[in-house]
Design a protein that fits this description.
With about 190 residues, this protein is an alpha+beta fold. Helix content is about 20%, strand content about 40%. The model has no long low-confidence stretch (mean pLDDT about 75).
């Protein structure tokens, strides 16, 4: 995910989400299946299980990604946090959308599963063990970053390292953290 300020209006942030899975991993799973996976059908089926359609209400451009390496979606949207209609949609804690309460920036990510399903998802856990959520945050949005914390409910779980890349910060979080907990990522600036 990449977030930056749209240059024509400082109240508008450009948000780009790329939500994909490795096609190589799907091909390995496909080799064990009775029938080959139809990637286009998979994209249509899984579109309804995420916030992807809700992003459309924010005038997002949603494109399918189906290349040799990745399968998923590329979502680009310009969010005006002062627009009342957008504000009402955003107040529902949409996944991956930055909000600005008090003295920090935060993003909510809904658990990919729950503890009851954990045993049934051992294959998914192995599949996700190498995955990372990457967040690139423009310094025009956050200023000088001081601390990044990942929390479940009100409990802080872990402090996350980040990389200063000149005009943006890069934050990487293992996807396994998202598997059985609703997570909030909080970015604190000076």
């Amino acid at each position: 995910m990449c977030i930056s300020i749209a240059p024509e209006d400082p109240r508008i942030e450009q948000n780009t989400l790329k939500i994909t899975v490795s096609k190589m991993m799907l091909e390995m799973a496909n080799g064990m299946a009775d029938e080959p996976l139809d990637y286009d059908a998979w994209l249509e089926t899984n579109r309804g299980s995420t916030d992807i359609d809700t992003y459309g209400t924010l005038n997002a451009r949603i494109e399918k990604v189906n290349n040799d390496l990745d399968l998923g979606y590329l979502i680009t949207m310009n969010l005006n946090y002062t627009d009342k209609t957008s504000r009402e949609t955003l107040d529902g804690e949409m996944d991956f959308i930055p909000m600005y309460p008090n003295n920090h920036t935060e993003m909510h990510i809904t658990a990919l599963s729950n503890d009851e399903d954990r045993e049934a998802h051992e294959m998914a856990l192995a599949f996700l063990s190498t995955g990372k959520y990457r967040l690139s945050m423009s310094k025009t949005c956050i200023g000088t970053l001081k601390r990044v914390v990942m929390a479940a409910a009100a409990e802080e779980l872990v402090e996350i390292a980040y990389i200063d890349m000149g005009d943006a910060y890069l934050i990487e979080i293992p996807v396994l953290y998202f598997f059985s907990n609703d997570i909030t990522i909080r970015l604190y600036s000076v």
